[in-house]
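Slide 14.
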Amino acid sequence: MRICIVAEHASTRFGGEAILPVHYFRLLRARGIDSWLVVHSRTRSEVLQLFPQDVDRILFVPDLWIHKLIFFCSRFLPRRLSEATLGLLNQLITQFCQRAIVRQLIRDQGIDVIHQPIPVAPRFPSMLFALGKPVVIGPLNGGMEYPPAFHHTESWISRVAIALARFFANAANTLLPGKKHASVVLVANQRTRRALPSGIRGRIIELVENGVDIGDWQAVPQPKESVLPRFVFIGRLVDWKAVDVVIRALEKVPVAELEIIGDGPMRHAWTRLAGDLSLQNRIQFTGWLPQQECAAHLHSATALVLPSLFECGGAVVLEAMAMGKPVIATRWGGPADYLDASSGMLVDPESYSALVTGFATAMQKLIDSPALANSMGSAGRQRVLRDFDWQQKIDQVISIYRSLAEKTGVSQEFEDRRVSPAAVSQHH
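Slide 15: predicted structure.
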């Protein structure tokens, strides 16, 4: 098989969905499958560093002046409004350029299947249609809203704009029918399936969006005396991650410490909050770290905390579980899909104060009961090994590729024979 992975970008540093194309390309190449990666050049240096042996298999869309202008303007809008308008426009420009590259790869390399793993938003239209080859899209993951008690965190302008964008989503997907014409659309959950545009023609298959590279996230037994009552947050420091919730929870748990790994626009505000609450001696802002170092920092932690209010996926939850660490998270979105009572603690987002109290109570409970923390960590690792290993996930995806490639091959062979009298005569 010859597979073409098409994505807006690919990066281990951007956070979120950007890492997904990296995993697909890495694992396909590790399996010896002929694969190509088509992405925007904004991550060119990182991608070439990640795949030095495959530089001839990676093609980049140049960073055009229009990309730069749209990105500059997007910084002045609320996040969700920016993503649903200017962000979408920027991605469509990239996809327009990618269509020409993919067509050339089909002609020159005989591509069998095209896979577009991101963007994961179910309503974003795709321009990968009418290419003469089967297209796989996803796994998609979305259909999210903020918890009812936190709707006020978004401005009314943003809420109205998002509602309008969703209203016109079917029209956009009719004009650009990549999703509607895709051979297979993968969805992470039923919530996402309900959010798909109407008129999907291909198969819809449920497959988890995220996975864990077990080799990078391993459980390492720690001596009891080295395990401190220390909690770790890993992620971008953006408003919907709600790190302020766990900072305020720490005030109620005087024996605990908190390490915040990541960077972003909210770092200054949350650093100031820690100072205002006189917690600066118990909170460490570490900044961005590569995955291997994040794993090392988790080794001696009591648990991972993720108070996010808008987390469609949450790969970091699976990574902590793979390391045998319990997780305390908001019962909303992706974490609620991954965790159960055996492997972590989910806090209901009934109100801001309830969320703060719930995180504080859960943190104290794990401190008071190391046996409970150990049992949750063990159960979480077993669940990851069973359901979320990237190696198992890529097996499923390859199986989908193979079924499409074989079906296309049979159809093409039939078409060739149908139009060739000599072939038909020879066949009979």
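Speaker note: The mean pLDDT is 87.
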